[in-house]
Structure formats: structure tokens, C-alpha cells
Amino acid sequence: MRHDCTLTVAKSDRQTSASIKIDTPRRLAYVKGHFTVQQGSVRVALKGNAGSKTEVMVSPGNPGTLEGTVRLRRDGGSFQLHFSPVGEFAGLQGQFSYEAR
After folding, report:
1. What is the pTM of this model?
2. How far apart are CA 45 and CA 47, in angstroms?
3. Cβ of 10: how many Cβ atoms within 10 Å?
């Protein structure tokens, strides 16, 4: 089953993350996302149980797309999206989908 999500971060100058829990006995998830930011630059990384799978740098006029299959974390069946700013960023928008495999 596929799930579509929207993520918004109004403003940040610190590293932050979003943990997405999947209620499934399966151990893998396919994730695809598209991210934009209004001000500043931010590195978006997709992480699972085995660390970073893929990452993309996002800035105004330079949206980023990431896609990959991650191993879900053992402590609750989740994956994470990490956001590492270069200075301060504002207006981060992300649309992503995931499905357990």
C-alpha cells in the first residue's frame, strides 16, 4: 500500500529530522520525494537502518528529488528524513510517498 505525505518546515537554522513509522512486518520501504525551499539552502537525506541511502541539496530555484529503498529501523519500523541547513532556511516544502516492500 502506498502512502502520500506532505512535509513543511517554516524556518530553521539547526539540523532537524522527521521519523516516519510504517506499521508493517516488512523490512524495506521504497521512498520517493520532491523538495523545494523558499530561502537558503538545505541538504535533505533519506536514512534507514543502514544509514544514509541518498541525499540532495535544495535551494531556491533548485528543487531536489530523492528516491531509494531503505531498510526500516528495527526499533519501530521507521525511516527518517534529515534536514541539514547551510546557515538558515525558510519555507521548506516536501511531497513524498512510501510503500513497504
Report:
1. 0.90
2. 6
3. 9
Dist. CA 98–CA 63, nearest whole Å: 19
Per residue in 37-78, pLDDT (tens digit) is 999 999 999 999 877 789 999 999 999 999 999 999 877 789
Dihedral over Cα of 23, 51, 97, 58: its sign:
positive
Print the SS3 string covering the chain: CEEEEEEEEEEECCCEEEEEECCCCCCEEEEEEEEECCEEEEEEEEEECCEEEEEEEEECCECEEEEEEEECCCCCCEEEEEEEEEEEEEEEEEEEEEEEC
Distances in whole angstroms, Cα of residue 92 to Cα of each of 1, 22, 35, 73, 77: 27, 23, 7, 25, 26
Amino acid in position 88: E
